[in-house]
Design a protein that fits this description.
Chain lengths: 350, 122
Amino acid sequence: MNGRAGWGRRARRDAGPGPTRQADAARVGSALEHAVPVLDLLGAQLGHVVETTEHAALSFLDEVKAVDAAAGNVASEADRLAALTAEQSAELAEIAAISRGSGEVIEQLVAFIERRDRAVIDLVDEVRGLSDHLGSIQKISRATTTLALNAKIEASRAGEHGAGFQVVADEVRELSRQSDIAARDIGDRIEQLALRLAEAMADRAGTDDGTARSDGDLTRRLEAVAQQQRSLVERLDTFTGRVDGATRQLVANSGTVHGLTTSMMAGLQFQDVTRQVIEHVVGTLDQLGHQLGDVAGVLEGRGDVDGLGDLEASMDRIRDGYVMDRQRQTHAEVTGAGPRAEAAPAIELF
Amino acid sequence: MTTVLLVDDSRTVLMSMSAILTKSGFEVVTATDGSDALGKLDEAKPNIIISDLNMPTMDGLTFVREARKRPGVRFTPILMLTTESAQAKRQEAKAAGATGWLVKPVGPEELISVIRQVVPGA
């Protein structure tokens, strides 16, 4: 609004002496007197806006600082979690190595048991083969008995000359009989041994609690345990990797929050900027109030028209009171004149 | 630790900038105008001063002139942080002994960057 042009038009329209004019002037003066407290009221309201925005800005700052502190705590906890995760990863690597070693031991054990099984089976076969040899011994023993009997007969025929030979024949026959008994006994023992070995092969690893019924069962269970162990380590490793990823994300997010809260704190400078603009407006309203009071006094016959302030000079004072480029730009846009905004850098080192 | 003496009559600016600087690892001493700041110079022994321009009791330019008379502050960087943007005021500040000029609102990264430019090792 161009205030100066408004005052000029009104001055021309009201020109001319007379009682009616004086009465009108007094009424206008009275009206202007009422406008002054309105301006005071506006100034007070704007002052209250400054106080309110400052209070709000400080409360906001407290909340932002609380958020920032919480983000800091989260970041600290995330760092601690990351350290624990790293420690767990190292332990898992160690467990994985142990698991691989256990698996190799189990594989070696299974291979050993299988080799031993084959050896025992071969042994049983060989033991049973010994029985065949015992049959030959028994045949020889029977043939020897027959031979001793024939020798005894021939010794009887020889009479007195064959008496010594008959003794030898009896001894041979007795020896053959004992050999036969010994061969039978050995055969029985070999058979029993073979049976026991076969039984042991069929159920060698049987346990009281029934957890393993045979070597095959035991080795399968051992292999399953080794496989479960490897699987468990892999799953733990995967889980630890996910925790590590989540922790890294948490740290990154905390950093983002930290940056945002810092920007929000800096953004509170707006309150100082607006405070200065409003204080300038309040000062201008106060100045305008005084001018209106003076004008009212003149119109009501209480003052001298020559004592009225220069409105153009008032505009200059308003302009000189600006501190920001934005204020100067607004002034130039509204008045169509005034100084051009200075294009200076926001940051300058001398 | 780098100590910053922050001078401003706005509580909002003092508290928000203090928070930013503290988060960035600086120790911050605050003063509400030039006179208050002069009284804290000897004890605070700041590595850098950041001062507003328009303040009651003693404005920023007077404060810079008075501070430069102190032997311990003669070479201390003094940055003006103000809403004022007039070139003439900048030249006055430069003549008074200010090191640089920052127009509010200034971003946190820019503020820290400027501090580190004028305070080696900050």
